[in-house]
Specification:
Number of domains: 1
Oligomer: single chain
CATH topology: MetI-like fold
Distance between the termini: 52 Å
Number of helices: 11
Strand content: under 5%
Radius of gyration: 20 Å
Helix content: over 70%
CATH superfamily: MetI-like
CATH class: Mainly Alpha
């Protein structure tokens, strides 16, 4: 069981780190996409959603090229930290952040678009600066979308396989995550261990969806209460 716990620990660390990075990067990006009607914003929206339709191996392939010592990012990383970005935990975080981007940004865009423009305009007329409007109005009113985005990002990262295998390989206690370990056990016909990991993933996915459903129902009840329904 020590092997499983090491794999589970690495997977949770990856999911937590990815969720934190996207919370920092995805919130301002989602706010801009929700409020801007520029051509650049309309072009950025499908780019953000691209990981939803692209095979993860395609993203992993191009990231692997970028992470290699001959790639721009990989060369810079090697020069700065004296270690390879490919097949490292840091590389996994970057890949997972890109691959999970739409799972965080899209719920936040929906939440931000539901905020009445009149509230934002009123706060601007009262002298609130853009950053004040974001932190004191947009974030509190969009907290439901934020919670859903965090749950979906965390759950999606837990189940990643293709992109993780492409850029992270299978290094114990660094890049070996649950989905990779499950694949190895199936290849080795060790179905007992495979059942443990697969059953755990099924239970985790179901619980994650239950949490999202509960958050949606809670938000709906709050909305009805505010409207007096």
């Amino acid at each position: 069981m020590s092997v499983e716990w090491a794999v589970i620990t690495t997977t949770i660390q990856l999911a937590l780190t990815t969720t934190l990075v996207l919370a920092l990067m995805g919130l301002p990006l989602a706010w801009w996409l929700a409020r801007s009607d520029s051509f650049i914003a309309r072009l950025a929206q499908p780019l953000v959603s691209l990981p939803l339709v692209l095979p993860p191996t395609v993203i992993g392939f191009y990231l692997l090229l970028a992470f290699s010592p001959k790639g721009g990012l990989g060369k810079l990383w090697l020069t700065t930290f004296d270690r390879s970005l490919a097949f490292s935990f840091a590389g996994l975080v970057i890949g997972s952040t890109i691959y999970s981007l739409p799972f965080f940004v899209q719920p936040m865009v929906v939440a931000f678009k539901q905020i009445p423009s009149s509230i934002i305009d009123a706060s601007r007329l009262l002298g609130a600066k853009a950053i004040d409007r974001f932190f004191t109005i947009a974030l509190p009113l969009g907290r439901h979308g934020f919670l859903v985005a965090c749950v979906m990002t965390f759950a999606h990262t837990i189940g990643e396989f293709g992109i993780v295998l492409m850029i992270g390989g299978n290094i114990p206690e660094e890049t070996r995550v649950v989905s990779i370990a499950l694949f190895d056990y199936v290849e080795a016909m060790d179905y007992q261990r495979a059942h443990i990991l697969a059953g755990g993933l099924v239970a985790f996915a179901f619980i994650s969806l239950l949490i999202v459903e509960w958050l949606n129902q809670s938000h709906l009840r709050d909305s009805h209460r505010r409207l007096g329904l």
